[in-house]
């Protein structure tokens, strides 16, 4: 494989990792991915949406 292709793949991998880390951070802390926390955040977001609509 060409060295340029290897370098490009490494750069793309680092970009994807960086993007995933940015998505994982919420308000300066790591967002937990436990199912119960995820469902709680969904219900909280739905309540906020209902309050904005009314």
Strands, helices and their partners?
Blueprint: H1 3-24, E1 25-26, E2 29-30, H2 35-53
Antiparallel strand pairs: 1-2
Give a short synopsis of this structure:
The protein is 76% helix and 7% strand. The protein is mainly alpha-helical. It has one domain.
Task: Characterise the protein shown here.
- The chain contains two helices and two strands.
- The chain has helices spanning 3-24, 35-53; strands spanning 25-26, 29-30.
- Helices cover 76% and strands 7% of the residues.
- A hairpin with a 2-residue loop joins strand 1 and strand 2 (29-30).
- It has 54 residues and is mainly alpha-helical.
- The chain has a two-stranded antiparallel sheet with strand order 1-2.
- The protein is elongated, with a radius of gyration of 18 Å.
- The protein has one domain.
Q: In which order are the strands of the major sheet placed?
A: 1-2
Characterize the main sheet: 2 strands, antiparallel
The helicity comes to over 70%
Tell me the total number of β-strands.
2
- Overall pLDDT score: 81
Structural class: mainly alpha
Low-confidence stretches: none
Instruction: Please tell me the total number of domains.
Output: 1
């Amino acid at each position: 494989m060409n060295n340029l292709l290897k370098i490009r793949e490494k750069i793309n991998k680092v970009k994807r990792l960086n993007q995933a880390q940015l998505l994982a951070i919420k308000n300066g802390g790591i967002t937990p991915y436990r199912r119960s926390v995820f469902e709680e955040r969904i219900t909280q977001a739905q309540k906020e949406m209902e309050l904005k609509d009314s």
